[in-house]
Amino acid sequence: MKPLYKHLFALLCVVFLSIVSCTPEKDISGEDEQNLAAILPGIIVDEYSDEGDEIDRIPDFSRTGYHYSDDPIPDYDKVIVTLYPTGDKTDRSDEINAAINKADGKTNSVVLLKAGDYYVSKQINIRQSHVCLRGEGGGKDDWKTRIIACGNGEMENCINIGNRVINPTIDQSSVTAIAEDYVPVGRLWLEIENVSGFNVRDRIVIFRPATAGWIHDIRMDRISDGENWNPDDMDMFHERIITSIVGNRIYLDAPVVMAIDSAYGGGWIAKIHLDRVVESGVEDVFLESTFNGDPSDEDHCRNGIKFTASEHCWARRISGRHFIFSLVGQGSSSKNITIEDCHSFEPVSLITGSRRYAFNAGQRSALGLVIRCSADNDRHSFTTTGKAPGPLAFVHCKATNCHSETSPHCFWATGILYDCLIQDSRQLSVQDNDFYGTGASHGWQASCVVMWNCEAPLLVCQSPWTAEGHHPTGKNYCIGCIGTKKLSTVKVNGQYLNDRPQGEWYPDPGAGASNTAHVTSGTYFGAKAMGLSLYEAQLAARKAEGIRAIPANWYL
User: Fold this and answer.
1) Are strands 334-340 and 182-183 parallel, antiparallel or unpaired?
2) For the whole model, what pTM was predicted?
């Protein structure tokens, strides 16, 4: 039996005391204490505890990132190839790819690009494990190593990290039903009908079907002016690793971020297989796409770096400009990716849908960490696309000159943390977008979203509809944030969708007839909790108790 996270409990008591004590005329009330008591147990949950078996909890987001944030990103020191600039615009694509392919996939190796410009007309592929593509660093205005994507609009990525096959194979013979009526959000274990076919270290998928009844209860079969959700399109898959088996109970490397409810079809697990690139990264380079001089040009490279079918990989100290879609994106079957100290600016594209998602996580991307990154002049600066399974965390990030909101963008992403994020324009939101969207109606953006100590001009936090007598279909949280609360920013027939259920606001400033309630630094609601990050507090508590997501001696 592992102990409760008593260190985290103490830290979070400091957080909330600092919120409620910053203005002397308002003390914490009995009702506030009850509200905080409802949320705090979710953050200090013991993974082996049976207490509060069916309570939805705020998940442990500290398990995101490279090796679940239990180990630092390594500094590889074996340089296998050193490349030098030619001083002209010679295409270096093949040369860089050949250098990467000299890595044996087992030895930690570096391909070093010395200071200078490297033009590439074709995608650079890191399909080898244990290899780092490294430049010689620099700053925003003085980069020493630049990779310049000079291909046309058919150049999807400047750099791709991951294998070609991006979808896991499900072992259908291992499909086993979940043997519980309700598995709550935040829990690190579940009961299955038969464990005999499973072993510790097995990779599994947790399948949660999208039933017509669930879609009806969250009212996604009544979208006002668009395409209703189809059950066939909305099944959810969450990848996990079995860390322990006790009886018919399996313990997981990461928490459940969408409840499994027998009222909505229950769920099952199965073993999966996928060959991934592991322990590879890109660091200390400036990425740039050429374009024709028109700020709306789109006949050029779409993404700076894209992770697909990769695990325990990273991008750090990367800056980039002029890409259409993203600087760094987490694509299909990317897992435990850390993106840190990266900066996107001067994107070049039309300002419309499916463009300018600076740091994006897509379907089947999980346990990614984006930390200390910034984006300027993008639309959705820190975001997810449809059905991103999570957990995913955006920590200590900043978005400036935004053309649209920061949010989990569409189609029921699950388990998203916005932590100490600052945005200077538009809104930070999680809500029902109804018919909004390019190509299809977005509907509910996400569930199990936590906005913690963030700051934005507008804040929107809704939770999905829940049918009477049912467990919650999803909860979202806005805690210790600064901005103007709005009930909704989506209009249908000229009216805001103010009737959607509100999320969990701590504390809640309410909202007047104008649909807004302004909260600023120094007020009871808006006081930042001394800059404390939820991710960092959870990680500190785990480390204090010696709790790792998986044992240190496992090879993944």
Assistant:
1) unpaired
2) 0.93
